[in-house]
Amino acid sequence: SEASVLIQGESGTGKEMLARAVHQASMRKRGPFVAINCAAIPEALLESELFGHAKGAFTGAETSRKGLFQTAQGGTVFLDEIGDMPIALQAKLLRVLQEREVRPVGASQSVPVDVRIVSATHRDLEAAIAEQRFREDLYYRLNVVNLHIPPLRERREDIGPLAQHFVDLLAKKHGRRIIGFVPDALDLLMRADWPGNIRQLMNVVEQCCALCTTVRIPAALVTRALRNKPTEILSYAEAKDHFERDYLVNLMKLTGGQVTEAARLAQRNRTEFYRLLQKHALSPALFKSLD
Description:
single chain, 291 residues, Rossmann fold, Helicase, Ruva Protein, domain 3
């Protein structure tokens, strides 16, 4: 289909990922996929980014420049956070959708464009229309096909497979021998609220993989990564536990996984030191494989 697609969902739910999937499943998959975050670019620059500009159009425009619509010719333009687009620019976007051509800033002639529009927002656009912050005519032009992504807390059956997918990606990327989570760790992931959705899950898995020294991520690392309040004060016991684990990890890295040598440096007997490693789910074998 060539129809415009509007993807709605909370921040971090994977709207750009879905937009790329829509592009790859379309007849335009061999064309470019060009994305822009409408909330991240100042209003004064957004028009030029989208539609391009002619030489001398404004101070500093020493050469003409194509905008994203021309760059995406034959492909897909992904307008992320479309709900944050300034109202004045919405009218110009509507004209592009109606006439299938763009007029670069400062140009006297329009340029034909052949692109498909996929847009996304975390905002309630119908409420924005009622408050006159979003054009109703543009809404209907963009919202031909509507895709809604539920928040992660409403599709908990996806948490395990997504977490495993991220582990596999990160292990391959960094050459680590991590194959998944212990059952208690996976249970913690399943019960978390995930206000940041998939983006937060990816961040938690990345933190866990960075600190993991066993083939399966332990529950202690998940608990630590799920702490999303930077100003939260740990209890004395928690702080001591974190320090102890970090100390052991550093010792094992320093000695290349040699328990006897690490115990000597820590001034502990080998049996006692090995029990500490077991307490924190640290496997000496993994440190022997580290570069």
